[in-house]
Amino acid sequence: MARDVQVSAGGVYDIGLHVVLCPKYRRQVLTGPVGARLRELIDAKAAEHGWRIVACEIMPDHVHLFVKTTPKDSPAFVANQFKGATSRVLRQEFPHLRTRLPTLWSRSYFVASAGAVSAATVQRYIDTQYERPWRKENAR
Fold this sequence. Notes:
Layout lengths: L5 E2 L4 E2 L1 E7 L10 H18 L2 E7 L4 E7 L5 H19 L1 H6 L9 E4 L5 H9 L13
Antiparallel strand pairs: 1-2, 3-5, 3-6, 4-5
């Protein structure tokens, strides 16, 4: 797989982040229309900042994202942008999320740069989430 470098006025970069977000108490609320709307919101937030979503898998109790960002955006900023914007809109549009959870997302998140492993490995991991044997009976 060839590197997908991006060019700016001051440099050339290839920054890929693997981001994992979990709902509060790991509740399985990201299904059906909530999951579909979440995907739309993630795509909109990425477009707003000029990020590219390489892979996105929304599981009932967590979200895996592989996103290409710019050098000026810290990993914490990226994760919190996705958490903040999606939480506000989803809780407004789906009232059952307000009654079941005090906040949509847990306070923590996982972010790793794709430097330790290849971008293809991260993308393959995210794309095959539903193929894991212990997830097949609970899938979608």
